[in-house]
Amino acid sequence: MLNIRGLTGCIVLPSSPCYDESRQVYNSRFNKYPKVIVYCNYTKDVVNAVLWARRERMPFRLRCGGHSYEAYSLINCGLVIDVSGLQSLEYHKESRTIQIGAGHRLLPLYEALWNEGVTLPGGTCPTVGISGQTLGGGYGYLSRLFGMTCDNLLEVEMVTAQGTVIRANENHHSDLLWACRGGGGGSFGAVTSLLFQVHPIEKVVRFRMTWEFSSLRSVVQFWQEWAPFTDPRLTSLLALPARNQGELRASGIFVGTEQELSQIIAPLRETIPPESVEVHALSWLDAARQLAGSPLQQEKFKGSSAYAYKPLSNAAIDQLVFNLENAPGQANVISFGAYGGVISQVPASATAFVHRYPMFMIHYQSYWEQDEDADKNIRWIEDFRNSMLPYTSGAYCNYSDSLILDWSLAYFGTNLERLIKIKRRYDPKNLFCFEQSIPVS
Ligand SMILES: Cc1cc2nc3c(=O)[nH]c(=O)nc-3n(C[C@H](O)[C@H](O)[C@H](O)COP(=O)(O)OP(=O)(O)OC[C@H]3O[C@@H](n4cnc5c(N)ncnc54)[C@H](O)[C@@H]3O)c2cc1C
Protein backbone atom coordinates (compact mmCIF):
# COMPACT_ATOMS: atom_id res chain seq x y z
CA MET A 1 0.00 0.00 0.00
CA LEU A 2 1.43 3.36 -1.04
CA ASN A 3 2.01 5.77 1.84
CA ILE A 4 1.52 9.29 0.47
CA ARG A 5 2.05 11.05 3.83
CA GLY A 6 4.36 14.00 3.30
CA LEU A 7 3.21 14.75 -0.24
CA THR A 8 1.41 18.07 -0.62
CA GLY A 9 -0.35 19.75 -3.54
CA CYS A 10 -2.99 18.09 -5.65
CA ILE A 11 -2.31 14.37 -5.57
CA VAL A 12 -3.57 12.10 -8.33
CA LEU A 13 -3.52 8.32 -7.89
CA PRO A 14 -4.50 5.53 -10.32
CA SER A 15 -7.86 5.42 -8.51
CA SER A 16 -8.51 9.17 -9.06
CA PRO A 17 -11.15 10.07 -11.67
CA CYS A 18 -8.71 12.40 -13.46
CA TYR A 19 -5.83 9.86 -13.52
CA ASP A 20 -6.04 9.09 -17.24
CA GLU A 21 -6.14 12.75 -18.19
CA SER A 22 -3.30 13.56 -15.79
CA ARG A 23 -0.94 10.95 -17.22
CA GLN A 24 -1.18 12.34 -20.76
CA VAL A 25 1.68 14.19 -22.39
CA TYR A 26 1.77 15.89 -25.76
CA ASN A 27 3.27 12.97 -27.67
CA SER A 28 0.47 10.39 -27.52
CA ARG A 29 2.83 7.74 -28.93
CA PHE A 30 3.65 7.11 -25.26
CA ASN A 31 1.32 5.55 -22.76
CA LYS A 32 2.80 5.42 -19.27
CA TYR A 33 1.29 4.66 -15.86
CA PRO A 34 2.79 6.60 -12.94
CA LYS A 35 2.04 5.53 -9.37
CA VAL A 36 1.43 9.10 -8.27
CA ILE A 37 1.20 12.48 -9.96
CA VAL A 38 1.53 15.53 -7.76
CA TYR A 39 0.48 18.93 -9.06
CA CYS A 40 2.53 21.48 -7.14
CA ASN A 41 1.13 24.92 -6.37
CA TYR A 42 4.03 26.16 -4.25
CA THR A 43 7.78 25.60 -4.08
CA LYS A 44 7.13 23.81 -0.78
CA ASP A 45 5.07 21.17 -2.64
CA VAL A 46 8.07 20.48 -4.88
CA VAL A 47 10.37 20.22 -1.84
CA ASN A 48 7.97 17.78 -0.20
CA ALA A 49 7.73 15.72 -3.38
CA VAL A 50 11.53 15.42 -3.73
CA LEU A 51 11.90 14.49 -0.03
CA TRP A 52 9.07 11.97 -0.29
CA ALA A 53 10.60 10.37 -3.40
CA ARG A 54 13.94 10.05 -1.57
CA ARG A 55 12.33 8.51 1.48
CA GLU A 56 10.20 6.09 -0.49
CA ARG A 57 13.03 5.36 -2.96
CA MET A 58 10.57 6.18 -5.69
CA PRO A 59 11.92 7.10 -9.13
CA PHE A 60 10.40 10.33 -10.38
CA ARG A 61 10.19 12.75 -13.30
CA LEU A 62 9.65 16.49 -13.48
CA ARG A 63 6.98 17.85 -15.78
CA CYS A 64 6.12 21.37 -16.89
CA GLY A 65 4.38 21.55 -20.31
CA GLY A 66 4.74 17.80 -21.06
CA HIS A 67 6.16 18.35 -24.58
CA SER A 68 9.28 16.21 -24.30
CA TYR A 69 9.58 14.40 -27.65
CA GLU A 70 10.36 11.12 -25.90
CA ALA A 71 7.96 11.70 -22.97
CA TYR A 72 10.87 12.01 -20.55
CA SER A 73 8.59 13.90 -18.16
CA LEU A 74 6.50 10.78 -17.62
CA ILE A 75 7.35 7.52 -15.86
CA ASN A 76 5.90 4.07 -15.32
CA CYS A 77 5.52 3.06 -11.66
CA GLY A 78 6.98 6.26 -10.29
CA LEU A 79 6.14 9.81 -9.26
CA VAL A 80 5.51 12.70 -11.65
CA ILE A 81 6.23 16.09 -10.07
CA ASP A 82 4.19 18.53 -12.14
CA VAL A 83 5.10 22.22 -11.76
CA SER A 84 2.38 23.61 -14.04
CA GLY A 85 0.58 25.15 -11.05
CA LEU A 86 3.53 27.50 -10.38
CA GLN A 87 2.03 30.47 -12.18
CA SER A 88 3.34 33.61 -10.44
CA LEU A 89 4.48 36.49 -12.66
CA GLU A 90 6.05 39.80 -11.64
CA TYR A 91 7.32 42.36 -14.11
CA HIS A 92 10.07 44.70 -12.89
CA LYS A 93 9.90 47.72 -15.12
CA GLU A 94 13.17 49.40 -14.07
CA SER A 95 15.35 46.38 -14.66
CA ARG A 96 13.14 45.11 -17.51
CA THR A 97 13.05 41.65 -16.00
CA ILE A 98 10.33 39.13 -15.19
CA GLN A 99 10.23 36.71 -12.31
CA ILE A 100 7.93 33.82 -13.14
CA GLY A 101 6.81 30.56 -11.65
CA ALA A 102 8.18 27.52 -13.48
CA GLY A 103 4.80 26.37 -14.79
CA HIS A 104 3.97 28.88 -17.52
CA ARG A 105 3.23 27.80 -21.07
CA LEU A 106 4.50 29.86 -23.97
CA LEU A 107 1.49 31.59 -25.51
CA PRO A 108 -0.16 32.65 -22.24
CA LEU A 109 3.25 33.93 -21.16
CA TYR A 110 3.69 35.96 -24.38
CA GLU A 111 0.17 37.35 -23.79
CA ALA A 112 0.96 38.41 -20.23
CA LEU A 113 4.25 39.99 -21.31
CA TRP A 114 2.57 41.79 -24.21
CA ASN A 115 0.45 43.69 -21.67
CA GLU A 116 3.75 45.14 -20.38
CA GLY A 117 5.06 45.89 -23.89
CA VAL A 118 7.82 43.27 -23.69
CA THR A 119 8.61 39.74 -24.77
CA LEU A 120 11.02 36.83 -24.54
CA PRO A 121 12.42 34.91 -27.53
CA GLY A 122 11.04 31.37 -27.61
CA GLY A 123 9.20 28.75 -29.59
CA THR A 124 5.91 28.98 -31.44
CA CYS A 125 4.02 26.07 -29.91
CA PRO A 126 1.48 27.67 -27.55
CA THR A 127 1.52 24.91 -24.95
CA VAL A 128 5.25 24.18 -24.60
CA GLY A 129 6.37 24.75 -21.01
CA ILE A 130 8.80 27.55 -20.22
CA SER A 131 10.90 25.33 -17.92
CA GLY A 132 11.60 22.48 -20.33
CA GLN A 133 12.13 24.86 -23.19
CA THR A 134 14.55 27.22 -21.40
CA LEU A 135 16.59 24.49 -19.77
CA GLY A 136 17.25 22.92 -23.17
CA GLY A 137 17.86 26.16 -25.12
CA GLY A 138 14.72 27.63 -26.70
CA TYR A 139 14.68 28.67 -30.36
CA GLY A 140 12.05 30.74 -32.13
CA TYR A 141 11.26 33.52 -34.57
CA LEU A 142 12.98 36.20 -32.46
CA SER A 143 16.14 34.23 -31.75
CA ARG A 144 18.45 35.87 -34.27
CA LEU A 145 17.57 39.21 -32.67
CA PHE A 146 17.26 38.34 -28.95
CA GLY A 147 19.11 35.00 -28.68
CA MET A 148 17.93 31.64 -27.39
CA THR A 149 15.47 31.65 -24.48
CA CYS A 150 18.27 30.42 -22.20
CA ASP A 151 20.45 33.41 -23.13
CA ASN A 152 17.90 35.62 -21.41
CA LEU A 153 17.82 33.60 -18.19
CA LEU A 154 19.35 35.48 -15.24
CA GLU A 155 18.46 33.31 -12.27
CA VAL A 156 16.68 30.10 -11.32
CA GLU A 157 15.20 28.96 -8.05
CA MET A 158 15.76 25.25 -7.73
CA VAL A 159 14.88 22.42 -5.36
CA THR A 160 18.00 20.29 -5.08
CA ALA A 161 18.45 16.57 -4.55
CA GLN A 162 18.79 17.32 -0.80
CA GLY A 163 15.37 19.00 -0.85
CA THR A 164 16.79 22.46 -0.22
CA VAL A 165 15.80 25.56 -2.17
CA ILE A 166 18.68 27.46 -3.76
CA ARG A 167 19.02 30.35 -6.16
CA ALA A 168 21.53 30.14 -8.99
CA ASN A 169 22.66 33.39 -10.58
CA GLU A 170 25.91 35.08 -11.67
CA ASN A 171 27.02 35.47 -8.01
CA HIS A 172 25.79 32.29 -6.32
CA HIS A 173 25.90 28.81 -7.81
CA SER A 174 26.95 30.37 -11.11
CA ASP A 175 27.96 26.93 -12.39
CA LEU A 176 24.38 25.77 -11.95
CA LEU A 177 23.03 28.80 -13.79
CA TRP A 178 25.48 27.98 -16.59
CA ALA A 179 24.10 24.41 -16.72
CA CYS A 180 20.49 25.65 -16.75
CA ARG A 181 21.24 27.70 -19.85
CA GLY A 182 20.87 24.82 -22.27
CA GLY A 183 22.12 21.76 -20.36
CA GLY A 184 18.66 20.17 -20.60
CA GLY A 185 15.78 19.75 -18.18
CA GLY A 186 15.48 17.14 -15.48
CA SER A 187 19.17 16.56 -14.62
CA PHE A 188 20.18 18.93 -11.82
CA GLY A 189 17.13 19.70 -9.71
CA ALA A 190 13.55 20.94 -9.97
CA VAL A 191 13.29 24.52 -11.18
CA THR A 192 10.50 26.37 -9.42
CA SER A 193 11.02 29.96 -10.56
CA LEU A 194 12.94 31.77 -13.31
CA LEU A 195 14.17 35.34 -13.72
CA PHE A 196 14.52 36.58 -17.31
CA GLN A 197 15.57 39.75 -19.02
CA VAL A 198 12.87 40.76 -21.49
CA HIS A 199 12.78 42.99 -24.56
CA PRO A 200 10.46 45.77 -25.68
CA ILE A 201 8.37 44.80 -28.69
CA GLU A 202 5.54 46.36 -30.71
CA LYS A 203 4.95 45.68 -34.37
CA VAL A 204 6.66 43.04 -36.45
CA VAL A 205 6.43 42.06 -40.11
CA ARG A 206 5.65 38.50 -41.09
CA PHE A 207 6.49 36.97 -44.47
CA ARG A 208 5.58 33.71 -46.08
CA MET A 209 6.53 32.41 -49.55
CA THR A 210 5.64 29.09 -51.13
CA TRP A 211 7.00 26.99 -54.00
CA GLU A 212 6.23 23.65 -55.56
CA PHE A 213 8.32 20.61 -54.68
CA SER A 214 10.10 20.85 -58.04
CA SER A 215 11.87 24.04 -56.83
CA LEU A 216 13.37 22.29 -53.80
CA ARG A 217 17.00 22.32 -54.96
CA SER A 218 17.12 25.97 -55.87
CA VAL A 219 15.13 27.05 -52.80
CA VAL A 220 17.47 25.16 -50.44
CA GLN A 221 20.56 26.43 -52.23
CA PHE A 222 19.42 30.02 -52.03
CA TRP A 223 17.89 29.99 -48.51
CA GLN A 224 20.95 28.41 -46.86
CA GLU A 225 23.29 31.08 -48.23
CA TRP A 226 20.89 33.86 -47.28
CA ALA A 227 18.84 33.23 -44.11
CA PRO A 228 21.75 32.66 -41.65
CA PHE A 229 23.58 35.80 -42.83
CA THR A 230 20.82 38.32 -43.44
CA ASP A 231 19.80 41.19 -41.13
CA PRO A 232 19.63 39.77 -37.55
CA ARG A 233 16.23 41.38 -37.07
CA LEU A 234 14.90 38.64 -39.37
CA THR A 235 14.62 35.02 -38.26
CA SER A 236 13.53 32.72 -41.07
CA LEU A 237 12.48 29.09 -41.21
CA LEU A 238 12.15 26.88 -44.27
CA ALA A 239 9.66 23.99 -44.21
CA LEU A 240 10.15 21.15 -46.71
CA PRO A 241 7.23 18.71 -46.64
CA ALA A 242 7.63 15.37 -48.39
CA ARG A 243 6.56 15.18 -52.04
CA ASN A 244 2.76 15.51 -52.43
CA GLN A 245 2.38 16.64 -48.82
CA GLY A 246 2.22 20.39 -49.35
CA GLU A 247 4.21 23.31 -50.65
CA LEU A 248 7.71 24.32 -49.68
CA ARG A 249 7.41 27.31 -47.34
CA ALA A 250 9.87 29.98 -46.28
CA SER A 251 8.58 32.16 -43.47
CA GLY A 252 9.97 34.73 -41.11
CA ILE A 253 9.40 37.41 -38.51
CA PHE A 254 11.17 40.74 -38.91
CA VAL A 255 11.37 43.45 -36.27
CA GLY A 256 11.37 46.53 -38.50
CA THR A 257 9.28 48.01 -41.27
CA GLU A 258 7.45 46.31 -44.13
CA GLN A 259 9.52 48.27 -46.61
CA GLU A 260 12.81 47.12 -45.07
CA LEU A 261 11.68 43.49 -45.06
CA SER A 262 10.51 43.70 -48.67
CA GLN A 263 14.03 44.76 -49.63
CA ILE A 264 15.62 41.99 -47.57
CA ILE A 265 13.52 39.22 -49.12
CA ALA A 266 13.69 40.67 -52.65
CA PRO A 267 16.72 38.54 -53.71
CA LEU A 268 14.94 35.32 -52.66
CA ARG A 269 11.75 36.37 -54.40
CA GLU A 270 13.51 37.41 -57.59
CA THR A 271 15.89 34.46 -57.84
CA ILE A 272 13.23 31.77 -57.37
CA PRO A 273 9.83 33.30 -58.15
CA PRO A 274 7.40 31.83 -55.58
CA GLU A 275 3.87 30.53 -56.14
CA SER A 276 2.61 32.88 -53.43
CA VAL A 277 4.00 35.69 -51.28
CA GLU A 278 2.54 37.35 -48.21
CA VAL A 279 4.17 40.21 -46.35
CA HIS A 280 2.27 42.06 -43.69
CA ALA A 281 2.84 44.11 -40.56
CA LEU A 282 1.04 43.15 -37.37
CA SER A 283 1.46 43.31 -33.62
CA TRP A 284 3.94 40.83 -32.16
CA LEU A 285 1.12 39.26 -30.17
CA ASP A 286 -1.01 38.71 -33.28
CA ALA A 287 2.04 37.18 -34.96
CA ALA A 288 2.63 34.87 -31.98
CA ARG A 289 -1.04 33.84 -32.06
CA GLN A 290 -0.95 33.20 -35.81
CA LEU A 291 2.23 31.17 -35.53
CA ALA A 292 0.68 29.16 -32.71
CA GLY A 293 -2.19 28.17 -35.02
CA SER A 294 -5.36 26.55 -33.77
CA PRO A 295 -5.30 24.81 -30.38
CA LEU A 296 -3.08 21.77 -30.59
CA GLN A 297 -4.30 18.29 -29.90
CA GLN A 298 -2.04 15.53 -28.69
CA GLU A 299 -0.24 13.85 -31.56
CA LYS A 300 1.73 10.69 -32.24
CA PHE A 301 5.08 11.77 -33.59
CA LYS A 302 8.79 11.22 -33.85
CA GLY A 303 11.25 14.06 -34.22
CA SER A 304 14.96 14.55 -34.41
CA SER A 305 17.49 17.19 -35.36
CA ALA A 306 21.00 17.96 -36.58
CA TYR A 307 23.01 21.07 -37.36
CA ALA A 308 24.42 22.25 -40.69
CA TYR A 309 27.71 24.07 -40.17
CA LYS A 310 28.32 24.59 -43.86
CA PRO A 311 26.06 24.85 -46.88
CA LEU A 312 24.53 21.56 -47.94
CA SER A 313 26.40 20.26 -50.98
CA ASN A 314 24.68 18.89 -54.09
CA ALA A 315 25.19 15.39 -52.70
CA ALA A 316 23.52 16.41 -49.43
CA ILE A 317 20.60 17.96 -51.29
CA ASP A 318 20.32 14.71 -53.31
CA GLN A 319 19.81 12.93 -49.97
CA LEU A 320 17.13 15.44 -48.94
CA VAL A 321 15.28 14.92 -52.20
CA PHE A 322 15.56 11.15 -52.00
CA ASN A 323 14.17 11.01 -48.46
CA LEU A 324 11.40 13.51 -49.14
CA GLU A 325 10.40 11.58 -52.26
CA ASN A 326 10.24 8.32 -50.31
CA ALA A 327 8.30 9.29 -47.20
CA PRO A 328 6.05 6.68 -45.62
CA GLY A 329 3.04 8.66 -44.49
CA GLN A 330 0.89 11.75 -44.82
CA ALA A 331 2.76 14.13 -42.54
CA ASN A 332 6.51 13.89 -43.04
CA VAL A 333 8.41 17.13 -43.06
CA ILE A 334 11.77 18.64 -42.32
CA SER A 335 12.42 22.26 -41.56
CA PHE A 336 15.46 24.47 -41.33
CA GLY A 337 15.73 27.19 -38.67
CA ALA A 338 18.26 29.92 -39.41
CA TYR A 339 20.95 30.54 -36.80
CA GLY A 340 23.51 33.35 -36.79
CA GLY A 341 22.65 36.79 -35.44
CA VAL A 342 22.73 37.08 -31.64
CA ILE A 343 22.77 33.26 -31.19
CA SER A 344 26.28 33.12 -32.65
CA GLN A 345 27.57 36.11 -30.69
CA VAL A 346 27.60 34.07 -27.46
CA PRO A 347 30.73 31.90 -27.14
CA ALA A 348 30.05 28.14 -27.17
CA SER A 349 31.47 27.77 -23.64
CA ALA A 350 29.60 30.75 -22.14
CA THR A 351 26.44 28.72 -21.57
CA ALA A 352 25.68 25.00 -21.67
CA PHE A 353 23.93 25.53 -25.01
CA VAL A 354 26.87 24.68 -27.25
CA HIS A 355 25.47 25.00 -30.79
CA ARG A 356 26.43 28.61 -31.40
CA TYR A 357 27.93 28.59 -34.86
CA PRO A 358 25.84 26.42 -37.16
CA MET A 359 24.23 28.02 -40.16
CA PHE A 360 20.94 26.35 -39.40
CA MET A 361 19.25 23.55 -37.50
CA ILE A 362 17.51 20.74 -39.36
CA HIS A 363 14.35 19.47 -37.67
CA TYR A 364 13.06 16.06 -38.83
CA GLN A 365 9.39 15.35 -38.10
CA SER A 366 6.91 12.57 -38.76
CA TYR A 367 3.28 12.34 -37.55
CA TRP A 368 0.76 9.52 -37.80
CA GLU A 369 -2.57 8.39 -36.38
CA GLN A 370 -2.66 4.59 -36.37
CA ASP A 371 -0.28 2.62 -34.16
CA GLU A 372 0.57 0.29 -37.03
CA ASP A 373 2.12 3.25 -38.87
CA ALA A 374 4.56 4.01 -36.08
CA ASP A 375 7.47 1.80 -37.13
CA LYS A 376 7.79 3.02 -40.70
CA ASN A 377 7.53 6.66 -39.64
CA ILE A 378 10.12 6.26 -36.89
CA ARG A 379 12.43 4.42 -39.29
CA TRP A 380 12.05 7.18 -41.85
CA ILE A 381 13.26 9.75 -39.30
CA GLU A 382 16.16 7.57 -38.22
CA ASP A 383 17.25 6.74 -41.79
CA PHE A 384 16.87 10.34 -42.91
CA ARG A 385 18.97 11.68 -40.02
CA ASN A 386 21.61 8.97 -40.56
CA SER A 387 21.81 9.63 -44.28
CA MET A 388 22.51 13.31 -43.55
CA LEU A 389 25.25 12.62 -40.97
CA PRO A 390 28.10 13.10 -43.48
CA TYR A 391 26.86 16.68 -43.93
CA THR A 392 25.65 17.59 -40.43
CA SER A 393 26.64 17.22 -36.80
CA GLY A 394 25.22 17.53 -33.30
CA ALA A 395 21.57 17.61 -32.26
CA TYR A 396 19.25 19.87 -30.26
CA CYS A 397 18.46 18.37 -26.82
CA ASN A 398 14.99 19.91 -26.82
CA TYR A 399 14.16 17.70 -29.81
CA SER A 400 15.18 14.63 -27.86
CA ASP A 401 15.66 11.46 -29.86
CA SER A 402 16.18 8.16 -28.04
CA LEU A 403 17.72 6.64 -31.19
CA ILE A 404 20.80 8.88 -31.21
CA LEU A 405 23.43 6.62 -29.70
CA ASP A 406 25.97 9.33 -28.89
CA TRP A 407 23.21 11.69 -27.70
CA SER A 408 25.25 13.30 -24.89
CA LEU A 409 27.99 14.46 -27.25
CA ALA A 410 25.48 15.34 -29.96
CA TYR A 411 23.49 17.56 -27.58
CA PHE A 412 26.28 19.08 -25.49
CA GLY A 413 29.55 18.63 -27.44
CA THR A 414 32.52 20.28 -25.76
CA ASN A 415 30.35 21.37 -22.81
CA LEU A 416 29.55 17.79 -21.77
CA GLU A 417 32.49 17.36 -19.43
CA ARG A 418 31.65 20.50 -17.47
CA LEU A 419 28.00 19.45 -17.24
CA ILE A 420 29.08 16.12 -15.74
CA LYS A 421 31.18 17.93 -13.11
CA ILE A 422 28.24 20.14 -12.20
CA LYS A 423 25.97 17.12 -12.03
CA ARG A 424 28.41 15.47 -9.60
CA ARG A 425 28.42 18.59 -7.44
CA TYR A 426 24.64 19.07 -7.17
CA ASP A 427 23.27 15.55 -7.58
CA PRO A 428 26.08 13.07 -6.85
CA LYS A 429 23.64 10.22 -6.16
CA ASN A 430 21.90 10.77 -9.51
CA LEU A 431 18.46 11.28 -8.04
CA PHE A 432 17.38 13.36 -11.02
CA CYS A 433 17.80 10.83 -13.76
CA PHE A 434 16.15 9.58 -16.91
CA GLU A 435 17.30 7.97 -20.17
CA GLN A 436 19.07 11.10 -21.43
CA SER A 437 19.92 12.95 -18.21
CA ILE A 438 23.46 14.20 -17.62
CA PRO A 439 25.40 11.25 -16.14
CA VAL A 440 27.50 11.51 -12.97
CA SER A 441 30.50 9.96 -14.70
C1 LIG B 1 4.60 20.68 -30.75
C2 LIG B 1 5.96 21.11 -30.25
C3 LIG B 1 6.51 22.30 -30.70
C4 LIG B 1 7.77 22.72 -30.26
N1 LIG B 1 8.29 23.90 -30.73
C5 LIG B 1 9.50 24.31 -30.29
C6 LIG B 1 10.07 25.54 -30.76
O1 LIG B 1 9.47 26.25 -31.56
N2 LIG B 1 11.29 25.89 -30.28
C7 LIG B 1 11.97 25.13 -29.38
O2 LIG B 1 13.06 25.53 -28.97
N3 LIG B 1 11.46 23.97 -28.92
C8 LIG B 1 10.26 23.55 -29.37
N4 LIG B 1 9.75 22.35 -28.93
C9 LIG B 1 10.57 21.51 -28.04
C10 LIG B 1 10.39 21.92 -26.57
O3 LIG B 1 11.10 23.10 -26.32
C11 LIG B 1 10.94 20.81 -25.68
O4 LIG B 1 10.26 19.62 -25.93
C12 LIG B 1 10.83 21.20 -24.21
O5 LIG B 1 11.71 20.41 -23.44
C13 LIG B 1 9.42 21.04 -23.71
O6 LIG B 1 9.29 21.58 -22.44
P1 LIG B 1 7.99 21.21 -21.59
O7 LIG B 1 8.14 21.84 -20.28
O8 LIG B 1 6.78 21.48 -22.40
O9 LIG B 1 8.11 19.63 -21.54
P2 LIG B 1 8.26 18.57 -20.35
O10 LIG B 1 8.04 17.28 -21.04
O11 LIG B 1 7.39 18.90 -19.22
O12 LIG B 1 9.77 18.73 -19.91
C14 LIG B 1 10.85 18.55 -20.78
C15 LIG B 1 12.09 18.14 -19.98
O13 LIG B 1 12.38 19.13 -19.00
C16 LIG B 1 12.27 18.58 -17.68
N5 LIG B 1 11.60 19.56 -16.81
C17 LIG B 1 10.34 20.02 -16.95
N6 LIG B 1 10.08 20.91 -15.98
C18 LIG B 1 11.20 21.03 -15.25
C19 LIG B 1 11.53 21.79 -14.10
N7 LIG B 1 10.66 22.60 -13.52
N8 LIG B 1 12.78 21.68 -13.60
C20 LIG B 1 13.69 20.86 -14.16
N9 LIG B 1 13.42 20.10 -15.24
C21 LIG B 1 12.18 20.18 -15.78
C22 LIG B 1 11.47 17.32 -17.83
O14 LIG B 1 11.74 16.39 -16.81
C23 LIG B 1 11.87 16.84 -19.21
O15 LIG B 1 13.09 16.13 -19.15
C24 LIG B 1 8.50 21.91 -29.35
C25 LIG B 1 7.94 20.71 -28.88
C26 LIG B 1 6.69 20.31 -29.34
C27 LIG B 1 6.12 19.01 -28.86
Structure characterization notes:
The chain is an alpha+beta fold and 441 residues long. It has three domains: 10-82, Uridine Diphospho-n-acetylenolpyruvylglucosamine Reductase, domain 2, CATH 3.30.43; 89-200 and 413-426, Uridine Diphospho-n-acetylenolpyruvylglucosamine Reductase, domain 3, CATH 3.30.465.10; 203-411, Vanillyl-alcohol Oxidase, Chain A, domain 3. It has 13 helices and 18 strands. The strands form four sheets. A seven-stranded antiparallel sheet has the order 15-12-14-13-17-18-16. A five-stranded antiparallel sheet has the order 5-6-10-8-9. A four-stranded mixed sheet has the order 1-2-4-3, with helices on one face. A hairpin with a 4-residue loop joins strand 5 and strand 6. The protein starts with 9 loop residues before the first strand and ends in a 15-residue tail after the last helix. The relative contact order is 0.13. The site of flavin-adenine dinucleotide has 33 residues, from strand 3, helix 4 and strand 10.
